[in-house]
Amino acid sequence: MKYNILLIDDQYEDESIQDFILNASLSNIKINAVGTHDEGMDLILNDVENKYQAVILDATGYKSIGESELSNTGLRYSLKKLSEHRKTKLVPWFVFTGASRNKNISEFSNDLELFQDDIKFGRKGQVYYIKVDDEEKLLEDIIFEIENLEKSQIQ
Fold first, then answer.
1. CA 7 from chain center: how many Å?
2. pLDDT tens per residue, range 45-97
3. Which residues pair with 54 in a beta bridge?
4. What phi and psi values does residue 99 have, to the nearest 5 degrees?
5. Closest Cα partner for 37 from 7, 4, 5, 14?
6. d(CA 22, CA 31)
7. pLDDT tens profile 101-133
8. Do the beta carbons of residue 44 and residue 82 sit within 8 Å?
9. Burial of 36 (0-12, 13-18, 19+ CB in 10 A)
10. Pairwise CA distance, residues 75 & 61, whole Å
């Protein structure tokens, strides 16, 4: 695999997510998945070997193991941690949602745009990606951002 990505999604074992992971492998993208934002941020922040080139964040999920209510708290936690981590290493991030409560809701988009104020990953005008509908766009954008970041680091 040419690209190694971390996926944080409480439903990563579901068939639809496993299909997405399989589809990604056809584009030379290996996706490793964890179920909570705490787990994912621990892997990213302690990735001294630079194993992960980008991270896909589920919008609605769990921040920690044992939580019983789905929310966007974990997403905000991860975005804050990634923002702080930029001082050490820039990790491209992409928000991936299937929750109808997030789709086409301006408040959700506005919240995400706050984290994209000075740097944005993905295509112009695309604040987040919708599961199933935007999977191909997401994979294309991941590859583009990783290659763009690698070129700028070489320069």
1. 6
2. 999 999 999 999 999 889 999 888 888 899 999 999 999 998 888 999 999 98
3. 5
4. -75, 125
5. 7
6. 9
7. 676 667 788 888 888 888 889 998 888 999 999
8. yes
9. buried
10. 8
